[in-house]
Amino acid sequence: MKRRANPTLIGAFVLGALVLLGAAAFAIGGGRLFAGTDRAVLHFNGSVFGLPVGAPVVFRGVRVGKVESIEIRHDARSDQFSIPVIVELDRGAIRSLDGGSSEDTQRLALPALVDRGLRAKLSMQSLLTGQLYVDLDLRPDEARSRRGGYPGLVEIPTSETAIQNLKAQLDGLDLRRLVDDVAAIAASARAIVAGPQLGQALNDLQQITANLRQVSEQLERRLGPLADGAQGALGSTDAAMRRLGDAADGVRASAERLDTLLAPDSPLMAQLQRSADELAAAAAGLRRATAEDSSLMRGTDRTLQDVSRAARAVRELADLLERHPEALLRGRGADAEEPRR
């Protein structure tokens, strides 16, 4: 006879299994299983190859969501294609970026972050696999463009990646012209290398090198005596400078002695002062002696008058003897003529 299973035991076992399953799901989901999410759309113009569904969405290195779906959209008016990427963002992660108060929650809501400059771009997740991820950051300096077409979803503007910028620059290059220019440069270089001008230039270069070597040897031979002469001249200059220094010292000593001699209280200056005083006294006595009313001048005038009368008498005697030589024997007669005065 079979034993009947206990329903209570089975129910408890099932309930425990459900509790364990829920706890595991909560642990694996990081506590976000029942957290709210925000959905947003990103429009990319270039290729998104390497961005799979489920790729992480990262804000400054912190995972805040994942890629939900990737679509292709055609604009019939401009005949251009864009790739909308729908992302799912963890609302709790977005709101916990800066505190957690009600005001901060409103300020950090997704539309507010977009207004503050939230931008998205594709970045390399692995160089080995080439997988991409969505990188979010605040870049208020970049332009904001809206595409629309997804009502109810917040549109996050996108930025071009460095690879896309490089590709755009390469697309703008005229590669055909660049290749033609390179080919022309190569042909010109080949013609120069194969032409006779290069050989002649090499020969001229060898000749110039030989001439430079010869000039260098001549300079080396001539610079030796010049260097010796320069050293001798430097020695003579040093000796002359020493003599000049000695002479300067002698002049300095003479100047010091002269300053000592010419000092106001020196014996030489006292003797010179006395001599000057004596010369001044002699000059004053000479001026007094040569004055018109001095006795010396009066005696000199009388002497000059006597000398003048004596000279006149001698002249008269000479005139008389010239006219009457016999008067020296007879004497002067009464009828003798008066000499002419």
UniProtKB/TrEMBL annotation:
Coiled coil: none
Domain of life, source organism: Bacteria
Mce/MlaD domain boundaries: 47-137
Pfam families, per the entry: MlaD
Protein's recorded name: Paraquat-inducible protein B
